[in-house]
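Sequence in, structure out.
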Amino acid sequence: MGFYRHLTREDREEIAVLRATGHSMRAVAAAIGRAASTISRELKRNALDTGRYSAQVADGAYMARRQRPALLERDRRLAGFVRDMRHRIELAHLHDEVGRVVALVGADGDAPSGVAGDALEHRKGGEPLGRAGGPRQLGIDDETAAVLPSTRARPIHPPP
């Protein structure tokens, strides 16, 4: 099975010149190294109202056909789903950060032995957080906190 490549602007210009000088479709195809069916399709698809062929008009029509909106631009429901999933992923990453702070600080707010002070220094707005008392202390609103699963539901270990 061969590979497919689109006609270039130069191919279209050569088709226009050869057709204008009276060459047959098969002669044009042989001259540019393409199948006669490709030339036939190109001439039918991009024929002017007069029946003639213009390389410039054909190339413009080709570019217009190639410029399609992206899938998310065409499907609003899918775009909404993708936005929602992206938001959930961001919340999951935020949840993991909260879990790491809670795991480092512990339930009583004291750092486990052997944890350097630098590892506990999570800041918001330049102020140290101190104890990890919950989502509010980290600046997470109640609505966002409601969708975050509990950090106590599964152990979260700090990265090595």
